[in-house]
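Re: your question about Dehydrogenase

S., sorry for the slow reply, the queue was backed up all week. Below is exactly what I fed in.
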Amino acid sequence: MSTKIDLEQEGIEVKKACCYFCHQNCGCLVYVKDGKVVHFEGDPEYPTNTGGLCCRGNVNMIHLDHEARVNYPLKRKGARGAGEWERITWEQAIDEIGTRLETLRNQFGAEAVATAGGTARTDDWARRRFMNLFGSPNGFHNSHLCWIPTFMVETAIYGWSPFEIDLGLSRCLVLWGQNPGASTLPEMSGISALKAKGLKIIVIDPRFTETAAKADLWLPLRPGSDLALALAWINVIIYEGLADYEFIEENCVGFNELMEHIGDFTPEWAEPLTGLSADLIRESAQMYATNKPGNIQWGVSIDQIGKPAGAAMQARAILRAITGNLDCPGADLLTGPSQEFVTDEEMELNEYLSEEQRAKQLGSDKFKLVTWPGYGRIAEITKKYWGKAPTAEWMCEAHPPTVYNAILTGKPYPVKALLVSATNPVNSYGESKKTLAALKAVDFLVTCDYWLTPTAMLSDYVLPIAGSFERPTITSTYGCSDFLMCSQRAIQPMYERRTDFEFWRDLGIKLGQKEHWPWETLEDAYLYRIKGLGYGVESYDEFVENYRFHFPEREYFKYKSRGGFATPSGKVELYSSVLEELGYPPLPQYIGPTENEIDNPELAKEYPLVLTTGAGVMPFHHSEHFQVKELRFLRHEPHMQINPDSAAEYGIQEGDWVWIETKRGRIKQKANLTEGIRPGTVFTERGWWYPERDMCDPELGGCLESNTNVLTSTADEDCDPMSGSWANRGLLCKVYKVDGADRTEAR
Ligand SMILES: Nc1nc2c(c(=O)[nH]1)N[C@H]1C(S)=C(S)[C@@H](COP(=O)(O)OP(=O)(O)OC[C@H]3O[C@@H](n4cnc5c(=O)[nH]c(N)nc54)[C@H](O)[C@@H]3O)O[C@H]1N2
Ligand SMILES: Nc1nc2c(c(=O)[nH]1)N[C@H]1C(S)=C(S)[C@@H](COP(=O)(O)OP(=O)(O)OC[C@H]3O[C@@H](n4cnc5c(=O)[nH]c(N)nc54)[C@H](O)[C@@H]3O)O[C@H]1N2
Ligand code: SF4
Ligand SMILES: [Mo]
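Result:
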């Protein structure tokens, strides 16, 4: 007897949805009966996960109806943070929020309303559209820490960011501060398969990670010293004659200036700065330059080293160019924006924000690259060349710490309202104590989330958001990829949850933006975006069911067919005229790690260890999923890593609770002694809070107790001067055992 179920006879529909718990958006087949999910599994036909799901992905059904989910709009009743809520309707919520924003705009100007987001999760073009029409330039994310500065530096130098890599044909892969073995699991299996076929792998990471285990060369550098290493690699490649002189001759400007500039940055110079031997620096540079084609895949670390971040991105960009590893088979590809579908930027209505309001964007006077001055210039160049600009929602943001400061000080002008969507700033932005103070100080706070996070707990309104399986999804890299991977909604949102898109649309309509929001559902908006692709579909669902993906034919050497690169000179600008125009060094100048023993000897006396905060660990995604006991079971408590030699020096043993302290504050995590981290370096996990504890203020789920962002720095002088990204990696700290008396077990 066959045990195969006849789905049709059972009334079960199979939907092509996706897991929504990280950027991978792994394809899922979701089995739906009577509007309810009865089963799901990885979609074997989805090109990235090919049927697999990680442990986090496997809790999708638990997440869908978890007892801690926010299911109805909530309005604060008692004091801020007291946890007393009144259930209201969406209509009442939108009406009251809209009225309040209108009043604030009349009194303080539209710029007094700011919005905060997190990692690319939802349709942020809708938020930007709302903000442009409302008149405020103060939308922001913490993506300042996550690729945005990289994208803009690379686009300044060669007209787009080569974030798509042609790995199948590559001979050498550099994973620079990236650990796909814990952060990008579907990709890791592909890398392992290529390694078996001879791909050379170089891993640059202070920790011996899941990925370092696959490396031909592992470079355990001092956190934050990436710039010194990149400069030394350029030196080796140029002075050992390993550069691609034909590519340089034909396609680059500024090589002579670069050659002169780089002469002193030898491997011997970099040795004491990076803690890597000159021989290893030389050998790794040679491996990258001689195994062509090769890739330097983006990893998040360089975006997070603070002061030297922008210069390190410049140096990394130059490495690709001088080796000729740009836009050829097997190399890092300059795809440009899609020429075929409506991009995120085209959905944003940036032209509606006046010059006068653009000029008020907070932080744009100090950090010019990912704010209106730099974005405006780069958008002008890319529009001329590609016909389109990068997504403004990500590449042109207010500077988050400057917004929090404006809330706290009223300077340079007051910020009175903050709308938070898809982020938990207390745990994910920098200098958490300051961020928390700003969230408490702001006059009007609204949060859109699945959970009552510490941030939501402080809010005046909390809106219940539809998540995995309850919403359609278009996956594209911060709206900048030229391909589409599409998933459909498996079920209508449960309870009274809605998508973020509906929140911004309804709020926009309340504030007189009706004519600009023609699409009633997210599917309608998506259909508008893909209609021009020529598949002849009548609905978005029809597209997903029949096609699901759109991958344009790969075209190499676009700079040949298009007559150059999208830069002012039409060449790869090793000496960057765009950066120079913005007032930044056109060649990468050496800047030491944000805090270090050479530039800050006094600080190093008190805080003798080097700190790096963060790195993705399974099963959590930033500060998400800590409520889900099936995941918490896998990682019950926060752990810091320290080398046994350093631990012995400070009397720390495996499993001890320890304080980790920087000049900004201290947190506690449990000690994990491991040879897999370089001596003198401390690594802390990110995201931690304890939703099982009292969530009311001041406890707020212990959101500062083990939260690594208490330790990080957002001081202007510690930020990258170009982008304003702040410092999470390459700081100074000390560690000491938690006294029996002040020890709290994580519950
Ligand atoms: N110290 C340190 N700090 C870091 C990092 C680090 O390595 N070290 N990494 C940085 C990086 S790379 C990033 S990208 C950021 C991430 O920072 P965030 O994106 O702010 O990450 P989370 O703290 O997990 O907050 C996401 C919140 O959004 C909710 N959510 C998820 N999906 C949706 C949705 O579709 N709509 C809505 N409305 N809510 C949703 C989740 O429940 C969660 O509460 O953190 C950065 N912070
Ligand atoms: N499990 C899990 N997966 C995730 C996430 C998550 O929170 N959890 N977040 C997602 C997001 S938004 C992002 S952006 C990606 C990021 O994913 P990745 O780009 O892989 O970045 P991380 O995992 O943050 O850090 C990678 C490695 O950098 C090393 N590192 C620390 N400091 C330095 C330094 O100064 N220099 C160098 N060269 N290396 C250093 C760390 O030891 C770590 O192993 O992961 C995504 N995937
Ligand atoms: S959480 Fe896991 S299953 Fe879900 S998208 Fe990310 S890697 Fe895929
Ligand atoms: Mo990220």
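The first strand starts at residue 12 and ends at 18. Residues 90-108 form the longest helix (19 residues).

Happy to talk it through on Thursday.
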